[in-house]
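Now for one protein, fold included:
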Amino acid sequence: MDIDQIETFLAVATYGGFHRAAQALRLSQPAVSARIQLLEESLGAKLFVRNRAHVALSRAGRTLRPHAENLLRALSLARQAVHEQQPASASGVLSIAAGLSISTYLLPDILKKYQSANSGVMVSVRSGNSMQVLKMVLDGEVDLGLARSLHHPEVETQSLRDDPLLFVGHPSHRATSKRRMKLQEVESLPLIFYDRGSSDWTLTNGLFRRAGLLPNVVLEVEGIETCKRMVLRRLGLAFLPQLAVTRELKSAKLRAIQITDAEPLHRSLDVIRSRHKPLGRTAQRFLSLLRSATDSASVSTI
């Protein structure tokens, strides 16, 4: 049994198949199969139940999984402990990859605090979608990644806060006179959607599809900020991330409406780091500030 085999086992368990695990690990499928076979031989047990459509954990696999996760976590902590014995430096470089909306709405206030306390550190922020953020972390191009609901066997994921999609409109729109509505009432309202094919677009469409409803989309745009500005100009209502509308809700420039007969559109705001790359002191200080900032009820109070 070795670390590569454990990582591969968790990848197959996470993605539910050898092909997707191979893609995530950037290996060939035969290499993934070979690692699993060696692990099963060393343990004397089959770890997966295979059929044509799906790969599931066997009883032995379900028993192994929490121990495998703990093993990788312990290895990461060991690397970090050794790295922390290196001499500290007040200067350096901090590299971050973040989703565009996170770069826009979360990072400016946090980085202002960080740089005031770490003036010798040069900060680099790169933006991208969730998969691009994950790739930058896996390739070692950045110290930390910030995105939504990211999990991969080669990274450690810590959830910082919930960032749900809220249904919002301009206070002068007749619909916002009601603070609570049923989804069927929302269906006929003029709706603005953004970033077709994105996770937010998929969540919003799925809300109506599961209820057998067809949303009245009057406008589709690119980007959260563009969508928010359209709502502020009274062109329609939209499902927008809480992170993006906190200030507007507090200043009463926008008003949220609760949908009473549908599940909330929850999304997790996560920070990820490579299991193979110990965090430097500059990144550790930023991570500590990030955790304390996102612990507060509202990002706008940072």
Notes: The chain has three domains: 3-83, 92-161+267-301, 165-259. The domain at 92-161+267-301 is CATH 3.40.190.10 (D-Maltodextrin-Binding Protein; domain 2).
